[in-house]
């Protein structure tokens, strides 16, 4: 008799995973948020959490409060302190609320923003409107075009949909014909129709066609400028001025005059019509001098909403008549409010501390300018503050600092550098500024090559490789010496 045996093998593995708690995720989102994004997150929380209040104009508007205006309600969170002290789950809540209110209050210490300040803040946020896109403008012009049947209008819509925000047609006519289920001749006619729309040059397939369309719109077809663009645009791009002048039988001076006219044309016609959503940049901190002439970091509190935990809902916890399930709901919502206030407080504190460290380490920049910036990496700031450098990276992402020299992103103050012959470290920003100055003062008929720029920097004590000079020049948007040369 055959014996049937069943065996089962168990393989146990041990591994360690890091799972972020919801409050950690929220704290990271708050830390990454810019001022407008933070305003949006707070608005969303106010809409769904009735225990969180926005203090506005010195009055109390209780989100979700069904008894708004009840005079029996306490006016401040302190009035409900005893109720909180009796609940261990909410211990320390009043202190969190006080800390946040102290931070978010205006610098003058007043309880409410002035009408002018509040009006400015609300205007900035409420004016973030979306204007018509380039494609919407073109579709409007299409609807106003007479004599088009339904099929041709559909083909034109496909052409418009293939135009990017710079104004160029990026799809091949054959591909549009397949998508629109149309003949290639119909697509070409649709392209001609769209290219007659405003602005001039729209729907071009390359720079040459874009400039020619603009010259045609100006009635300059057949002019010397038209001939230069039509036949010699590539040579002009390589700065072969003598060659083009000889081909046209004109002087180099006359050719330069023609090129000046061409330079005033728009190579990106879509930029004239395409309107992106309005983006406002708000400085997180101000670097300025106090009355004693000392530099200091001042947080920007002008656009920060002033929040607090609702005293009304805190008082419900003390009321013995409040049902148990209602108290449980209130505790849950207040815990969410507490986490939000702590996350915002931590965000503001981290950014302010980073600003103070940058002021200390880049003091020469604020005193003397970009040329005196020091090389700096995020790990140095992280070590000073006592956090991981990834926290620094998140905290400064898309954040700005207002200085007497202008508005700068936080990331501007972090850069690599080189050691000069005196043993001092020089930031890459300082080297770039020196390159700009050298090129701005060069003889345009004999521009400085990358090798020559390298030699000049070396003579000044900066041993920078030629490829690094070329890289910095390209980052500055400066053309090579052969293209910069003037005739």
Q: Secondary-structure map with pairings?
A:
Elements: H1 22-32, H2 35-48, E1 52-56, E2 59-61, H3 81-85, H4 93-104, H5 115-126, H6 134-143, H7 150-161, H8 173-180, H9 184-195, H10 207-217, H11 224-237, H12 241-248, H13 252-263, H14 270-273, E3 283-289, E4 295-299, E5 307-309, H15 311-318, H16 324-361, H17 363-368, H18 378-385, H19 389-396, E6 400-403, E7 406-409, E8 417-419, E9 425-427, H20 428-440, H21 450-459, H22 466-475, H23 481-484
Helix pairs in contact: 1-16, 4-16, 6-7, 7-8, 7-9, 8-9, 10-11, 11-12, 11-13, 12-13, 18-19, 21-22
Write up what this structure looks like.
With 487 residues, the chain is an alpha+beta fold. The protein folds into 4 domains: 22-60 and 79-112 and 306-343, no CATH class; 134-273, no CATH class; 345-413, Arc Repressor Mutant, subunit A (Orthogonal Bundle), CATH 1.10.10; 417-484, Homeodomain-like (Arc Repressor Mutant, subunit A). It contains 23 helices and 9 strands. It has a 4-stranded mixed sheet, with helices on one face. A 3-stranded antiparallel sheet has the order 2-1-5. β1 and β2 (59-61) form a beta hairpin. α7 packs across α8 (173-180). The longest helix is centred in the C-terminal third of the chain and has 38 residues, at 324-361. 24% of the residues are buried.
Principal-axes shape call: flat
Radius of gyration: 32 Å
Helical stretch tally? 23
Strand percent estimate? 5-15%
Q: How many DSSP-defined strands? A: 9
User: Could you give the order of strands across the largest sheet?
Assistant: 4-3-6-7
User: Please, what is the average pLDDT?
Assistant: 80
Structural class: alpha+beta
Low-confidence stretches: 57-112
* Main β sheet profile: 4 strands, mixed
């Amino acid at each position: 008799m055959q014996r049937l045996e069943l065996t089962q093998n168990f393989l146990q593995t041990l591994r360690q995973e890091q799972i972020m708690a919801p409050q950690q995720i929220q704290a990271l989102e708050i830390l990454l948020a810019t001022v407008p994004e933070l305003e949006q997150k707070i608005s969303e929380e106010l809409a769904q959490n009735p225990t969180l209040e926005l203090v506005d104009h010195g009055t109390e508007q209780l989100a979700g409060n069904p008894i708004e205006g009840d005079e029996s309600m306490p006016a401040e969170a302190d009035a409900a302190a005893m109720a909180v002290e009796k609940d261990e789950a909410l211990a320390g809540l009043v202190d969190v609320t006080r800390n946040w209110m102290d931070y978010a209050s205006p610098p003058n210490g007043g309880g409410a923003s002035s009408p002018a300040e509040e009006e400015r803040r609300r205007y900035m946020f409420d004016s973030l409107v979306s204007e018509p896109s380039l494609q919407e403008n073109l579709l409007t012009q299409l609807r106003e075009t007479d004599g088009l049947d339904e099929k041709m209008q559909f083909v034109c819509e496909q052409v418009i949909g293939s135009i990017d925000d710079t104004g160029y047609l990026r799809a091949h006519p054959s591909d549009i014909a397949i998508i629109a289920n149309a003949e290639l001749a119909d697509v070409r006619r649709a392209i001609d129709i769209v290219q007659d729309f405003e602005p001039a040059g729209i729907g071009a397939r390359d720079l040459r066609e874009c400039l020619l369309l603009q010259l045609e719109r100006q009635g300059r077809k057949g002019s010397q400028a038209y001939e230069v663009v039509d036949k010699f645009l590539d040579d002009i791009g390589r700065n072969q001025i003598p060659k083009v002048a000889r081909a046209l039988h004109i002087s180099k001076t006359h050719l330069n005059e023609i090129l000046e006219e061409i330079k005033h044309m728009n190579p990106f016609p879509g930029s004239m019509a395409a309107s992106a959503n309005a983006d406002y940049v708000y400085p997180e901190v101000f670097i300025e001098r106090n009355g004693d002439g000392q530099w200091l970091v001042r947080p920007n509190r002008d656009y920060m909403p002033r929040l607090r935990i609702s005293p009304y809902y805190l008082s419900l916890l003390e009321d013995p008549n409040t049902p148990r399930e209602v108290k449980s709901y209130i505790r849950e919502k207040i815990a969410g409010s507490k986490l939000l206030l702590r996350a915002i407080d931590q965000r503001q504190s981290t950014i302010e501390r980073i600003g103070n460290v940058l002021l200390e380490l880049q003091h020469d920049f604020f005193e003397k300018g970009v040329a005196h910036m020091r090389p700096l990496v995020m790990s140095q700031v992280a070590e000073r503050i006592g956090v991981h450098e990834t926290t620094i990276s998140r905290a400064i992402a898309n954040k700005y600092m207002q200085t007497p020299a202008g508005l700068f992103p936080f990331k501007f103050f972090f850069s690599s550098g080189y050691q000069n012959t005196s043993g001092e470290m020089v930031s890459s920003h300082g080297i770039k500024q020196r390159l700009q100055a050298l090129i701005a003062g060069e003889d345009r008929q004999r521009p400085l090559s990358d090798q020559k720029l390298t030699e000049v920097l070396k003579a000044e004590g900066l041993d920078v490789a030629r490829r690094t000079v070329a890289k910095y020049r390209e980052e500055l948007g400066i053309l090579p010496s052969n293209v910069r040369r003037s005739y």
